[in-house]
Amino acid sequence: MKKLKAIGLLILSGLLMASSFAPYDFIIGGMLGIVPLLIIEDQISKEDKWRKFRVFASAYLVFVVYNFVTIYWVRNAAWIGVIAPAIVNSAFFAMAIVAYSSIKSRLSPKAAYLSLVMLWVAWEYIELQDWDLSWPWLTYGFSLSNWVKLIQWYSYTGALGGTAWLLIVNLFVFFVYKSWKLKEDSFFIIKKGIQLGLVVFVPILISLLQYYTYEEKGFEQDVVVLQPNMNPYSDRFMDSKGNELKAMSAVAQVRRFTEIADKVMDEDVDFLLMHETALPQTESNLTLPYSASVGVLKRWRASKYPNLSILTGLAYREFKEGEIGEDVPATYKRSYDGRYYEYFNSSILINGENDTLPQYHKSMLVIGVERIPDYFVYFQKYLTDFDSDADANIYNPNNGKQAEREVFYGKGDSAIVAPVICYESLFGDYITEYVRKGANFLGVITNDAWWGNTAGYQQHWGFSRMRAIETRRSVARSANTGWSGFINQRGDELQKSTYLTQDVLRQKIQLNSEMSFYAQYGDIIGKLGVWFSIMALLNLLVKKVTAKGV
Q: Coil, strand, or helix at residue 199?
């Protein structure tokens, strides 16, 4: 019975954490989610038998539940996208809890409580970097994305500041519980309750003060976002029930895009945003200058809206010239005629009849779908005999990417848009690179249709609200099936489409060129977390070695 009660508490812990994310947005769940885990760890830490293993197993169960319940919807694209994070990501966080438990027993409880916050923040910071096992979707501070009135200080701390706040609140709830459980004097219980109240309400009051005193900055631009509502697998338009409509040619599809946009367009519109990979045909460096789809958009723009800049997504291949050599990069693919190319999830800007079509390639890529570790590619090549089998192939989803962010300039060069493609909107520090390049608004183009009508697109929308606060930049967002819309510099929703409907929205937004603290300095809290964690773990190691020597 005692074991079942412990398992129940651990499952509750994971469920409370998951409940803090959209569509539930249960902030109390975020403030209490880790408390059951801390209670179980505290019980285990008083015993010697298999202590570390039991702490790891307990924490692992919590994080598996948390991962699975929060991102179950990824199964609509691929089950591996649910299973892999639940297995791998949970293990990393469970190890952080083991480290916290060890610091508490070998150093001191106070050092452990601080270490818990720093170890957690440090690992989330690492997951926000560009590497093979990056999976930042479950960053705990992301759960506050729809509580914009309470997180205005993200403009200083970023989302990792939200993670730290929630963890500290959880710790103080745990302190109150422990004090009550130990039947301490009422004075101490009340004192800890007051401390908990301060930890909860002081940041909230600071944020509310920021929210109600902040004034939108910058000049206005008139922006339109398109939501065509297409099946991403068949590239066919859909009705509001998800039923596919009659197939169209690529040119006819693009003409249909312009017809939808015409409903709200006039010569005063400055920008039109079209979703990720909106152009129906894969273009290349050989075809783009002569693209029929781009030609439709150019002629439509020139004849009706000469002041318009069009930001659209497209799939793009860059064919390589000359000898490649034996060391073929892991992002290179080979066509049936033997030519090498790189594939990009890309974007272009169209704002002149004879323009150069500036491009930006998505560079934060989805694990398993747009990238796998390079050594997996090389290992497959090692096992494959291409000489004896002309049709031999390997699994290589690796897209190309570019080293630096790119910004696009509107007519007159005063409006500068950050072309943020889909998954990139998760990475706050990464988005600041656009801002430091001069972007004065964020143009998010995405295709969330892969996940269906689930929590996925709702969570993804909320992440754009956080990016608006962090950078103090307005957001225009075009999503294939929704949500599309506009977000101001405080993170407020100005307009939002209905999911699974064909729509087009128009809004005047303000373009801000001032730098927020976070935009200028990035994830300082994450860097501090890494530094502190290294110091704490080294201290723990020294203590362990010293104890053995004695």
A: helix
